[in-house]
From TrEMBL:
Belongs to the leucine-binding protein family. SUPFAM superfamilies: Periplasmic binding protein-like I. This is Branched-chain amino acid ABC transporter, permease protein. It comes from Lactobacillus kimbladii. PROSITE patterns: PROKAR_LIPOPROTEIN. Keywords: Signal. Residues 1-22 form the signal peptide. It comes from the Bacteria. Pfam families: Peripla_BP_6 (PF13458). The keyword Disulfide bond does not apply. Residues 41-389 form the Leucine-binding protein domain.
Amino acid sequence: MSKFSKNLLRIFTLGMAGLALAGCSVAKSGGGKGTHQDKDTVKVGINIELSGTAAGYGSAEKQGIVLAASEINKAGGINVNGHKKKLKLLIRDNKSAIATSASVAAQLATKDKVAAVIGPATTNCGTAEIPNITKASVPGISPSATDPNYTRQKNGKVQPYVFRACFQDTFQGKSAAKFVDNKLKAKRVAVYADNSSDYGTGLAKAFKDTYKGKIVDSQTYSAGDKDFNAVLTSFKSKKIDAIYVPGYYTELGLIIKQARQMGIKAPIVGGDGMCDPKLVQISGAKNATDIYYTTPFSTNVAAKNPDSKAAKFIKAYKARYHTDAPTFSALAYDAVYLVKTAIEEQKSDDSVKITEGLAKIKDFDGVTGRITMDKFHNPEMPIAIEKLTNGKVSDSFRVE
């Protein structure tokens, strides 16, 4: 997912300039021979947002990563050509900052010589790490960077060392539109998108390109905005059947709260940026009713199949953290097992071989569903939509 505030956009420009000065130019292919691990350990770097604007997502992903690693080590470790090796996590906080993410990636890939990097959570921080992991020939897999261009170079070719464990924004936006059309039967929809992020604008475009009904109004807000009453009042006067609000929980919680307080009862639909418990904390549980969002992981769907890998993950997560498993934890958990699978199928923990293994992933049985990597290192995977009632997941739907 991409989380750009106006300040982050300014930082991005300065940060990329700083990368060039530091000699961190983007390579079309790996500049090194890859990293090699010691006899008994496979080091995996974690470049994640544990503080700053995206800390909610990063902290959830860290928990999924730690759970996966503990399970792997408890079972004996990773099988590297017949020899079991323990997984060692090197966890670093990129502070939700582009320049920090780039330096963390350099530390992990070049100095620590990790076999792979998991993270960052956001597209902007993920993009910043690409030059350094590419130069070191170390694969990076983001659990949640959904911008369509994340895994592609400017020339349209695949970024050779960049992968993701989540679906793309276009897939989310199209799926939400089909749901609004076919399930909600909404004929008149207003769109209210975060214009300070590629995530918000990308989802909005995909939704509007796919939705068959009438878009009665389309407005935008920026990250950090607090008062949405004027736009919501305008929506209310236009007899809307639903509102599509692609963005993040920080603003969406307030949008939901203010909409319900002024008497807007229409369904509010969003993307996976809603998949954080803080959304309900901000909106208030009572206001979080008739709320829908696209997600790669549904606890409700998993509960219907108690023998599934997803159900077992939910149980293990609850036992360890004493709370329900959020989507971002599930995505990160799968990312760890994707790296493990690549190592074991290639019979090598050499970073170049792991990259080859990740690109060949097919029918991986993850907690978020069955995953196959396409030629652009994007997972082909299922999508669900969850419904909130009084702040709790009350129903879920598969979108075909």
